Amino acid sequence: MNILLVRLRLIGDVVFTTPVIRALRRHYPSARLTYLVETGAAPVVADNPHLSDVIAVTHQRGLARLADDFRLARQLRRRRFDIAIDLHGGPRSAWLTWATRAPVRVGYDVAGRSWMYTRLVHRPRELRPRHSVENQWDLLPAVDAGFPASPDPVADRVEMAVPSGTHAAIDARLRALGVPPGARTIVLHVSAGNPFRRWPEASFAELAAGLAGAEADRWVLITGGPSDRDAAQRVIAAARTRAGAASSHIVDAEGLTLVELRALFDRSALFVGGDSGPLHVASTSDVPIVGLYGPTLAARSAPWRPAALRTASVDAGTLPCRPCDQRVCAPGDFRCLTGVPAAAVRAAAEELLRSER
Questions:
Q1: Residue 157 forms part of a structural domain
Q2: CA separation for the pair 207, 343 (Å, rounded)
Q3: What confidence tens digit (pLDDT) does each residue in 108-131 have?
Q4: Quick check: helix, strand or coil at residue 60?
Q5: For position 271, which CATH number holds?
Q6: Among 112, 188, 200, 253, which residue's Cβ finds the most Cβ atoms within 10 Å?
């Protein structure tokens, strides 16, 4: 059996597909499983023990992408897949799934693209309070009726492997940053690729200062995306000013690769961040997590892992515009995030930190 999985674009979306990978390996133990992913999210699955191969493609636009996709389509067709599963449903992933000419092509019944598949799965257009892992899992019974109807967060948790040597590299990095052995490290990820998911910088600074100053063994590590380097620096500067004597315990941890970030979570006492890729990478570890949800719902994208692993979800509560499609802020003031007070996030963080003592 030769099976292709297609999931393009974002890190968190790829994380949500990892229970499907494991389930397919259980169901087809001798199958060849290949995963098609874009380079930005490829580290999530690059070392997945259940996969036979990973094909990483660049995210391009215009004529360059068309040329690349035609070359890729020929490559995929030569591999003679028996089954192709489109876990995305976008125009590019649907076309590439169709281009495999696999006898069985499974995808969602998206208008204008349904003809590209041989087996369809209904996906409502509205933003339902249903987890994205479950939405991905819906495709499996269309492959074979023997798959369970729903995933189990214990047997089918999200995962991301850490390559050999990465933990040692992170330990060395922490020493270089001045973090002493035995310190309780708290990771605050202060950015998001989507501006609709960015909690205010001032709130992050207040939180970082409060957490760092509460106990002497705490060290707060600030991370951010490459496009938000300046924002991370502003948060660090403001937090250090507020923290006073504890300012040296607020550390700039920029520059980590995605794999290094995953290894860091295994060395951390807490992660705090918005609904973006690093939160979902953190969910593949056992670190306690405080997730901040603005235009999105925790019911759709909270960490998918055993309930014994502590998680808190903080949001602004019920709003008539929430959830939204994150194209235009209807009220114009991003109240779904500005309405999340630092004090509420701090309280959730402190509760998780106490429970891990």
A1: no
A2: 8
A3: 999 899 999 999 999 887 777 899
A4: coil
A5: 3.40.50.2000
A6: 188
